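Field log, afternoon session.

UNIT: design team B
ACTIVITY: writing a sequence onto a fixed backbone
BACKBONE:
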């Protein structure tokens, strides 16, 4: 789990309308010095990769967590869709 303000941006590669039949790759770019397993991350260590079944559901969950944390809309994470499979 990452702490608030450690993530710089989220990139989703795959179809934004994907159902659970396909999986999309998600790359999370961290800020320089973000803590990963208790150690600061720099360079290539700043990127995490995961797979999601439904990109829209993933984005909705991120937004829900941001609302619960009280993060103002103008400070929410950029979630960028990059093409389709």
């Amino acid at each position: 789990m990452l702490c608030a303000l450690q993530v710089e941006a989220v990139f989703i590669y795959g179809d934004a309308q994907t159902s659970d039949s396909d999986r999309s790759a998600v790359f999370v770019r961290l800020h320089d010095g973000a803590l990963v397993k208790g150690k600061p991350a720099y360079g290539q260590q700043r990127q995490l990769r995961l797979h999601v079944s439904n990109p829209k559901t993933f984005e909705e969950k991120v937004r829900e967590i941001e609302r619960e944390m009280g993060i103002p809309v103008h400070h929410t994470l950029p979630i960028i869709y990059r093409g389709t499979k």
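LOG NOTE: The two ends are 27 Å apart (CA to CA).
NEXT ACTIVITY: expression trials, pending approval
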